[in-house]
Amino acid sequence: MLAEIKAHNLRLGGTGTTVRAIVSCKGATCTKGLYDVHALATELDDLFYGQIVPKKLKIGVFGCINSLGKAKSQDIGIMPSFKNPHKFEIYIGGLLGNNPVYGQHIDIALNKEQLICAIKFIIEIYQKNGKYPQRLRKVLDTNPNLWQEITDYLTKLVQK
After folding, report:
1. Minimal CA–CA distance to 44: which of 138, 107, 110?
2. Exposure pattern of 6-16 as b/e (b: 16+ CB <10 Å)?
3. Digit-coded pLDDT (tens) for 38-85
4. Are 123 and 48 in contact (CB under 8 A)?
5. What is the C-alpha separation between 47 and 72, in angstroms, rounded?
6. Please, where are the H alpha helices in the chain?
7. Measured CA angle at 83 (ends 49, 80), to 5 deg
8. Looking at the DSSP assignment, which residues form a beta bridge with residue 92?
9. pTM (2 d.p.)
10. CA distance 23 to 37
11. 8 A C-beta contact, residue 22 and residue 48
12. Of 29, 28, 17, the residue nearest 75 (C-alpha)
């Protein structure tokens, strides 16, 4: 079975204490889609999928205001910046399940390279400060200085 999976370029995983497969909406194939979310989601998936974290970490890429709720419900939700074309904004710390909470909007417009750096930084903060079974939001809320550390990092990214 493993040989067949490899022969078809499939992968195992997507459970446990890892970064889960990146999800996206229909993106540019939707009449309201503002960019090709599939290309970005695929690139992010190649970079981050399967990384070990303290608990599961969900990343979602969404292409219009209709998906705002979905972006807010991800550990890291990505949306187009509606004020800065061709840039992105993120929501951090969203949760569904027993104790749903919206992710916190970070009102800093990032280009794609900055976005990738930001996600990497957030994952590293989670890996360094989290302990099983904490989700990202719990880690950030338990250590409020981490929220500021993320905001400061993103601010410096865009000032370069």
Report:
1. 110
2. eeeeeeeeeee
3. 999 999 999 999 999 999 999 999 998 888 899 999 999 999 999 999
4. yes
5. 22
6. 2-7, 37-48, 68-72, 112-129, 136-142, 144-159
7. 20
8. 76, 104
9. 0.92
10. 9
11. yes
12. 17
